[in-house]
Amino acid sequence: MNIPFNKPCHNSNTLKYICDAFERNQTAGDGAYTKLCNKWIEEQFSVAQSLLTHSCTAALEMGALLFSVKAGDEVIMPSFTFVSTANAFVLRGATPVFVDIRPDTYNIDETRIEEAITPRTKAIVPVHYAGVGCEMDTICDIAKRHSLPILEDAAQGFGATYKGKALGSIGELGALSFHETKNIMSGEGGALLINDTSYSEHAEIIREKGTNRSKFFRGQVDKYTWVDTGSSYLPSDIIAACLYSLLEDASAITARRLDIWNRYDAAFRPFEEKGIIKCPTIPEHCTHNAHMYEILLPNLEVRTNFISHLKQHDIAAPFHYVPLHSAPAGMKYGRTSGTLSVTDSVSETLVRLPMYYDLTNNSTDQVIEIASEFLHKL
Fold first, then answer.
1. How far apart, in whole angstroms, are the C-alpha atoms of residue 156 and residue 337?
2. Which pLDDT tens digits describe the chain residue by residue (378 residues)?
3. Which of 234, 330, 360, 378 is the most exposed, fewest CB within 10 Å of its CB?
C-alpha cells in the first residue's frame, strides 16, 4: 500500500543502542537496557515495579499465574479484544466470561460486570480500547466489594490516563504492549506493571523460569534454584535497547500522533454531525494517546465498500476484532453473560484509519480526501 495502516517507528539512537548492547556483551534478558526501560516505566507510570516481557501476551499470562487462576475458575472480560486477553486464562483452564461493551468508548460496560460475577469468578480484566480508559472507579468498586483482583489490559494504553492515573497503574496488575503496531514499539515486547507489591517476589520467580535467579543477582541468596512454576518471559536486551530509544522520544511520538488524530477528527466530525458515521468518544476525565482513529459506518456492507474504496487508492484501512464470543475457540472455551449486541454491531461497522508517527500531513490529507469522497456519497 502507498499508505499502510501502520509503520514501525525508530530514531537515530535505535541502532546505536542495539550495537551498544552487543558491545557490552549483554544481549540476554535483564541487561542494562532492560533495567533502563523498567526504571523509565516505573517513574513515568508511577508504579511500584515494571517487569519487561517479550510480549503483552506474556505479561497477561504472568498475571493469570499470579492470580493463581486454575481449572474451573472464571475471569470477566470484554469479547471485543485481542485473543491474548482470553488465552492467558484459558491456558490455566479457566473460562473467560464475556460481557458487552459500551456504545461510546467500546470499553467493557462496567454496568454489566456485576451480573456476570459468580462464586467461580477469580478476576476482572478491563481492556482500555484505543488508549481510552475504562470506567475504573466503578470497576474498582465492584472488584473491592467482591474481593476480586484486577488485571488491566493496557496493551493500547501507553501514555494515556484515567483521572490523572496512567492506564495500567490502577488495578493490582497491568499489562503493556510494545508490538510494532503500538505507539511505542520494539517489534515484539511488553511489560507487566505491578501496583500491589505483594505480587512482586512471585512475579520475578515466574518470569525467571520458576527460579529465584533475580534474588541471586541482587546478592540476596548465594545460589539460585527452582522454587515454583514459571517460564521464560524475559525479552532480549537487544529488544530492550530498541525500546529504550523510543521511550526517550515518547513525548514527541505521542504529540505527533495526536496531531494526526486531531487532523482526522476535524475532517470527519462534520460527517458525524450529519449522522453518517460515528467518531471516537473521549470522556472528559480521560486523556488518550492517539493510538488509533476509528469510525463506525452504518452497516457491514457500507464498511466493506469503504475499505475497498480506500484500497483502490492504495490506502490500508482494516476493521478490527472478530468478537471472541463468536470465534470457534471462544465458543469452545468461554461463555457470555447477557446479550452482546453492542459488541456484535461495533465489530461489523468499525474501521481504523492509517496512524503512525511517520505519516506525513500530505498523506493524512490524502486519506481524508479519499475517505470523504466516499462519505459524501452517503
1. 25
2. 899 999 999 999 999 999 999 999 989 999 999 999 999 999 999 999 999 999 999 999 999 999 999 999 999 999 999 999 999 999 999 999 999 999 999 999 999 999 999 999 999 999 999 999 999 999 999 999 999 999 999 999 999 999 999 999 999 999 999 999 999 999 999 999 999 999 999 999 999 998 988 887 777 877 788 889 999 999 999 999 999 999 999 999 999 999 999 999 999 999 999 999 999 999 999 999 999 999 999 999 999 999 999 999 999 999 999 999 999 999 999 999 999 999 999 999 999 999 999 999 999 999 999 999 999 999
3. 360
